[in-house]
């Protein structure tokens, strides 16, 4: 459970940092590239043994999966930034968070590794989770975001698919390709792929398109990189802790991020919640209880 809580915490920090990017006028892609370089060095600093495992397993199938995931990460990170500018933060958040249905269905239908017999209450909780995500993410400017989505519906669709596909790759790799002692090496390899691809694109934009690199992008990238590394590391560890039961883990993780993010928005950014937002939070709590009532019952009794 501690890995799940840490995963929620570090993922929420990422949302807060992106909020600050907009406030300070940071060049998002530059900061994202620096972020992945920092992720790489963070992994190397905190897990020297994982570097040895990485070198010893060059060419393993999970290495290919990590590079596919790394390519997806940097692309989806940039898509999220563009989507927030083009269709609004609310619609982008909804597109990202409802993507939890993809790894949940993949875990249940393809991997078939649920550790418990899912009941009607569990499935009801999953449905309520999707409703809660939409209601909690809804903001006053959602109508504007909807209008923009009508004109550029491909963008939120791609964000939705990219976010869900990333979780599917992690879940499949954990279940079929990785052993627990390789988790850290997998994380480092993923960020190495993102860093290499990002640096290549950044060099092209700097020399071919004459886009100057800003010093504040370096600071912003460092601030993002450390929590980003641990958000993925603790997600992988949480999957191992729950024996790859993604059907339980992903809804709890995503809703936990929404709840903590909403609370942080109120306390640190002065955000105000509408009645619809509060209804979404209430449904999120109910959904959490319904999806995990067996675990809660076993823990208490």
TrEMBL record:
Keywords: Membrane, Transmembrane, Transmembrane helix. Gene3D superfamilies: 1.10.3730.20. The chain crosses the membrane at residues 6-22, 29-49, 61-80, 87-108, 120-140, 152-172, 184-205, 217-242, 248-269, 276-293. InterPro entries: EmrE-like (IPR037185). This is EamA domain-containing protein.
């Amino acid at each position: 459970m501690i890995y799940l809580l840490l995963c929620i915490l570090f993922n929420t920090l990422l949302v807060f940092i992106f909020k600050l990017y907009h406030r300070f006028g940071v060049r998002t892609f530059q900061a994202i590239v620096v972020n992945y370089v920092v992720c790489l060095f963070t992994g190397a600093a905190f897990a020297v043994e994982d570097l040895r495992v990485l070198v010893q397993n060059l060419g393993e199938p999970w290495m290919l999966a990590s590079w596919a995931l790394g390519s997806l990460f940097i692309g989806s990170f940039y898509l999220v930034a563009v989507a927030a500018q083009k269709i609004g933060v609310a619609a982008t958040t909804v597109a990202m968070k409802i993507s939890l249905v993809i790894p949940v269905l993949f875990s249940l239908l393809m991997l078939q590794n649920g550790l418990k017999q899912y009941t009607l209450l569990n499935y009801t909780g999953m449905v309520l989770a999707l409703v809660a995500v939409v209601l909690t993410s809804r903001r006053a400017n959602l109508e504007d975001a909807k209008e923009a989505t009508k004109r550029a519906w491909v963008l939120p669709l791609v964000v939705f698919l990219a976010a869900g596909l990333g979780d599917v790759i992690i879940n499949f790799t954990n279940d079929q390709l990785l052993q627990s002692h390789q988790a850290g090496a997998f994380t480092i390899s993923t960020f190495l792929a993102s860093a290499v691809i990002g640096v290549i694109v950044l060099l092209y934009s700097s020399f071919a398109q004459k886009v100057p690199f800003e010093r504040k992008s370096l600071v912003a990238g460092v601030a993002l990189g450390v929590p980003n590394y641990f958000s993925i590391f603790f997600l992988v560890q949480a999957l191992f802790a729950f024996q790859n039961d993604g059907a339980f883990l992903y809804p709890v993780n995503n809703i936990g991020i929404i709840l903590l993010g909403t609370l942080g928005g109120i306390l640190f950014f002065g955000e105000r919640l509408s009645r619809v937002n509060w209804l979404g939070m209430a449904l999120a709590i109910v959904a959490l209880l319904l999806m995990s009532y067996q675990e809660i019952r076993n823990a208490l009794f």
